[in-house]
Write a structure and sequence with these properties.
With about 575 residues, this protein is α/β, with parallel strands linked by helices. Helix content is about 60%, strand content about 10%. Strands 5, 6, 7, 8, 9, 10 and 11 form a seven-stranded mixed β-sheet that branches. A hairpin with a 5-residue loop joins β5 and β6. α2 packs across α9.
């Protein structure tokens, strides 16, 4: 059953073909994810400045309700770093106290759910292709700084005023350092040492959860000797609240902008994760369907005492590596969380607040990705501009303002450039010379060697279209070589370079290989700085020659025949006219 192109119960197809073997496979993946989900959800609630139970409530409800409407079988919904710190920024910018934030949270989540649901039916998820990865990288890096500075005060046992920006929070933290609590620092040191030892010697085990358990035991043993750190509150699962939003026009107008920012960020984050995992697995993904599932999960979270919902990168990657058979692994994971909450919820009172804050700081540090930052800063001037505007804006402005600013700059740069690449068919005449043929005379056959003539702009707005077209070609079982003829390609940026890396890995996973020809110096610079050239390899890389424009493609064909080990092969070209695809 569908409406406006969206499935209203897609999990029904899964259930009709479900069996015991798939259930066992999904249950194993679910257990792996649940062991990470419990401490991580508490940590994200702490990041948002909310009680730890809101994170667990959110994770439980969203992992059960989300898959009912989801498109991806790998995405694990629930709280995430990005949306947690956005919630914190929104409430701090409004001047809400923790108590006021908790009261306003159901209404904010309801608005987020409405924005996502309406957006899904209006097919707005496609807007993500116009937002450069530099925006997300800049936002995540700024968010990491805000996470770290906000948790440092808990690590030091300080009770200083909260602030909406990193700069203000740093000032408040510095002013309160004279009142540092020694017990909190000791607990933080115990947690850090436990985490590092477990990470070094207990690989494959749930390091975060075990670190909390070890710290709790050590603190319990040291209590008779005067160690009295501030503890978390236990969770009474039997009093799980039904949180109905309260409607007041003044509050509605205050938080509507923040709700839109949370919905926008969750859409960007989940789309990025879903596309990446789908590309690795060879799956198809409907981003609007995925957005609808997040709307439903956020609605459930708004009624069940939860927090903002997004796709979690770490939990989704763990689920992907655990090889679930279906999206039911997410449902099983949520069920395990609920059972664990009823069995062990009260034991959370044995966890020191400083211990969880220490692990949150480690998570924050892990969000700072030097490789991605270098890629954004060195690849093109546009990527560097978008990254720096978003990052610096995130340090001195509330994060919702920063992400709007970064998105605006990204779209503005897109408007200055063309929107998508153009692909043309290449063939040979009777003498063996290269010709460009019109699509109407294209032969409908699948080649062993495909020459793809990329014409026009190849940057972040066109990378999804390009990857989708190329994946159609790369999936053919008889294809051995893809030659990208890039003589007329322009504006390659970090996002497109990353897409070409994904294409190269995907093609090789299918038993094919990628060769590029006709590369101009400016494109070569981007490929070299991004690491794409290293991945493709010098032997599969042929530069443009002004004296003989077709010689690089001729040399590329020689290389293709060298790889295939045959002197003759069927050679045809995948083609697309401007604004119209042909395969």
């Amino acid at each position: 059953m569908s409406w406006k192109g969206l499935e209203l119960f897609p999990i029904g197809k899964v259930l009709r073909q479900y069996n015991l073997r798939k259930a066992k496979q999904d249950a194993r993946a679910a257990m792996n994810v649940a062991l990470l989900d419990i401490p991580q959800s508490m940590a994200y609630a702490l990041i948002a400045g909310l009680p730890v139970q809101t994170g667990i409530f959110c994770a439980s409800l969203s992992t059960i309700t989300g898959p009912v409407l989801a498109s991806s079988r790998f995405i694990m919904l629930g709280p995430s770093n990005a949306t947690a710190v956005m919630l914190l920024s929104v409430f701090l910018s409004l001047g809400y106290s923790p108590g006021q934030a908790l009261i306003a949270l159901p209404l904010l989540l309801l608005l987020v759910a409405i924005f996502m649901t309406v957006g899904a039916f209006c097919k707005v998820a496609g807007i993500t292709q116009y937002i450069s990865k530099a925006v997300i990288c800049g936002y995540i890096t700024a968010a990491a700084f805000l996470i770290i500075i906000n948790q440092l005060k808990t690590v030091c046992g300080l009770h200083v005023p909260r602030a909406a920006t990193f700069v203000e929070s740093l000032g408040n933290f510095s002013a309160g350092l004279g009142k540092t609590d020694t017990d909190a620092l000791i607990v933080s040191g115990i947690t850090l040492v436990s985490y590092l030892l477990l990470k070094r010697f207990a690989k494959g085990l749930p390091t975060i959860a075990l670190s909390l358990v070890v710290t709790a035991v050590v603190v319990y043993v040291l209590r008779p000797y005067g160690l009295e750190p501030e503890m978390l509150s236990g969770i009474n699962a039997s009093s799980w609240p039904l949180t109905l939003p309260t409607f007041q026009w003044k509050e509605f107008t205050e938080i509507a902008g923040g709700a839109l920012a949370v919905a926008f960020l969750a859409m960007l984050e989940s789309s990025s994760i879903a596309k990446s995992l789908a590309a690795q697995a060879g799956d198809r993904i409907d981003l609007n369907q995925q957005m609808l599932s997040m709307g439903a999960a956020t609605f459930a979270s708004s009624l069940g005492g939860g927090m903002a919902v997004s796709g979690s990168l770490t939990r989704s990657m763990l689920n992907f590596r655990s090889k679930p058979a279906t999206r039911m692994s997410s449902v099983f994971s949520g069920t395990i969380l609920i059972v664990a909450l009823f069995l062990f919820g009260d034991k959370i009172a044995y966890l020191p607040r400083a211990a969880l804050a220490t692990l949150v700081i480690l998570v924050g540090i892990s969000l700072i990705n030097p490789e991605q930052i270098r890629l954004m800063l060195k690849t093109t001037r546009n990527d560097a501009t978008v990254f720096l505007v978003t990052f610096v804006g995130g340090l001195i402005l509330p994060l919702d303002t920063a992400i709007y600013l970064g998105a605006a700059i990204s779209i503005g740069l897109f408007v200055r450039q063309a929107a998508r690449p153009e692909l043309r068919e290449i063939s040979f005449d009777e003498q063996g010379n290269l010709l460009e043929r019109a699509p109407e005379v294209q032969k409908h056959r699948r080649p062993e060697i495909a020459i793809v003539h990329v014409e026009g702009d190849l940057f972040f707005a066109s990378s999804d279209v390009f990857l989708d077209q190329m994946r159609h070609l790369a999936e053919h079982p008889d294809l051995r070589i893809i030659i990208l003829r890039m003589r007329n390609a322009r504006h390659l940026d970090a996002t497109a370079a990353s897409t070409m890396m994904e294409l190269t890995r995907f093609a090789r996973s299918k038993g094919s290989d990628l060769i590029v020809s006709g590369v101009h110096p400016e494109l070569e610079t981007v490929m070299r700085q991004s690491g794409l050239l290293d991945l493709i390899g010098e032997k599969n890389f042929f530069r443009y020659s002004p004296e003989n424009p077709t010689i690089s493609t001729r040399d590329a064909l020689k290389r293709a025949r060298e790889i295939t080990g045959v002197d003759s092969a069927d050679i045809t070209i995948y083609t697309a006219d401007k604004g119209k695809d042909h395969a």
